[in-house]
Amino acid sequence: MRPTVVRITVALALAGVALTVSSVPALADIIPADRRIDWRAGIEGGIPVRTTICADVQADHGATADGVTDDSAAFQAAIDACPEGQVVFIPAGTYRLDDSLLVEKGIVLRGEGPESTRLIFHGAATTSNRGYIHLGDLWDNNADITAVTQATKDSPTLDVASTSAFSQDGYIFIDQIDDPSFITIDGVGGTCTWCGTRNGESRSLTQMMQITGVGTGSLTVDPAPFLSYSATFSPEIYQPLMVVAEAGIEDLYLEDAVGTASVDNIRLKNCARCWVRNVESYKVMEHHILVQQCFHCEIRDSYLHDSHLWGGGQGYGVLLSMATTATLVENNVLYDLHCPGMIASGPAGNVMAYNYSLNTHGSQENWSYGSYTNHAAHPHMNLFEGNVGHSFGADFYWGSASHQTLYRNYFDMADPDKTAGQQGVRVDKYNYYFNIVGNVLGAPGTQGIYEFPGDDTCDVFVKAAYVLGYSGSCSTDNDPQVHATILRHGNYDAITQSTAWDDANPDHELPPSLYLDSKPDFFECRPWPPFGPDLDPMIGRIPAQDRYEGVDPCSGGSGGTGTGGSSSGTGGTGGTGAGHGAAAGAASDDEGGCGCRTAAPTTTPDRIGLLALLALASVVCRRRRP
């Protein structure tokens, strides 16, 4: 049976961009239907506009904003007193906070912009299982485990043993015992005892759903299952006891000033339709933003950068984890981090799109770490689209991933000052059914090889467009199933200076997007889509890159911050506007891996000089803290 054809038709008025789009169905899908979903990530209808201010932390609760006095009690009092649907207002000023803040209801924390409202955290007395700012419920309180007799991909009806514990508009998780044909929680780092939502019970294929109807012996849910669940592996549903809806953080700056506790700057847990928008987060121990067991949330228009340490589990930008579903990470700047954008431990149906990442760090500073990564079993059906970075990596450190899609990204393979691990796309052992479609790999002039493993399996100092099936050690024990199940279609690489298509797929028409119906507003005057082998030029620019570099092409000059940007940095390390990004791979003893390796070669070849991207060259004005 021929898969259903999906086409996105847009009115094209893109100056200087040649793009072929057809409303006439071709002979096949650009990505077959069994390998993808209808990505509908983020908050339906956009982030809510909240106008009612319930409290001013200074005027109503006595916050001093002097940068010396602990204001955390005043903040928490304002949060606790604020009714659902209203705003806790944080006027301009510098606030010292010696404890974390807990938001367990649908309210908004709003400042006057990252350059004006500054929250400086000096540790926290009650940070167990929470971030410096925590939205949602703290605990893993799952209940009402119920057997599922039928759950089919794309079908909104679940047949279940009983519906008595469930009600309309409630939230549930679905999982099953791991199918060993494509799922494992055992990797080169050991067994993942936290994968999925039930802590290493070998039930890591999971997603979150909302109940839209309760029948006799059945539930209707949204979204429908992203993959079919088999009775052979005992699928079950269960529900969290508490989900916080429509809580948000907006327009402020926060900083971990001490770096002495293993804590996240922002954590969302058991949240639905929650958001972080226009936030600058500087310095962190673990994650700038950690998202766990969340549904249709949104992280956008923010700056996340720098870390106190770069070891395992440290220095992450955004991490989507633990069955987080249909969440959107869009239009962010992520730099000087260990793992800038990661999806790990069971999230499904999420979208990371149009983010700008550069400069990775780790326990070995010569190694280039992945800008965007999969890590820990078992992420599936997530989309990475339109991002800029050095590389993508799907490792095998804590197990498997499957059905991931990389679409119209630009990975330049040029992490500054790195001599090892600079690959474009790395998909390691037990990572199956990946779709790598319409991407641009390598900056112009990049030299290296098209693919290894092979004769160059252990030569991590050679640049390669692809690393496929790597087992995590310098051996020939590589996984042929990665090759057998991957779809590589319509990708340009600068090493061969050509676009390679899958001979089995006659469809060469690349839709502008796999999750957007039309050009998004935040692109303003910029051509869209920005990247792809069907464009002329193939490499454009995204708004997040322009914000970082202080360029505003839509106002006719440079030095602007663009939409949603911060101007709180000290200004400018000079340089060129050549594309930045990240490469796959990680240090051998890096437990938090953004792609991992277990052995290093003993010799280092001469470094290859990187050519500037003349078409993109401009003076850089970095918006960053010192």
What can be said about this structure in brief?
By secondary structure, this protein is mostly beta strands. Helices cover 4% and strands 31% of the residues.
Structure description:
With 626 residues, the chain is mostly beta strands. It has an 18-stranded parallel sheet that branches. Strands 5-8-19-22-25-28-31-34-38-43-42 form an 11-stranded parallel sheet. A hairpin with a 4-residue loop joins β45 (491-493) and β46. The termini are far apart. Residues 1-28 and 557-626 have low confidence and may be disordered.
Helices and strands, with pairings:
Layout: E1 53-56, E2 66-70, H1 72-81, E3 87-89, E4 93-97, E5 101-103, E6 108-110, E7 117-121, E8 133-136, E9 142-150, E10 157-160, E11 171-176, E12 186-187, E13 190-191, E14 205-214, E15 218-222, E16 236-240, E17 244-245, E18 248-256, E19 266-269, E20 271-272, E21 275-282, E22 287-292, E23 298-300, E24 303-305, E25 316-321, E26 328-330, E27 333-337, E28 339-344, E29 351-353, E30 356-360, E31 372-375, E32 383-385, E33 388-389, E34 392-394, E35 401-402, E36 405-407, E37 410-411, E38 423-427, E39 431-432, E40 435-437, E41 440-441, E42 449-452, E43 464-468, H2 480-485, E44 487-489, E45 491-493, E46 498-500, H3 543-549, E47 551-552, E48 557-558
Parallel strand pairs: 1-3, 2-4, 3-6, 4-7, 5-8, 6-18, 7-18, 8-19, 17-20, 18-21, 19-22, 21-23, 21-24, 22-25, 23-26, 24-27, 25-28, 26-29, 27-30, 28-31, 29-32, 31-34, 32-36, 33-37, 34-38, 35-39, 36-40, 37-41, 38-43, 40-44, 41-45, 42-43
Antiparallel strand pairs: 9-10, 9-16, 10-15, 11-14, 11-16, 12-13, 14-15, 45-46, 47-48
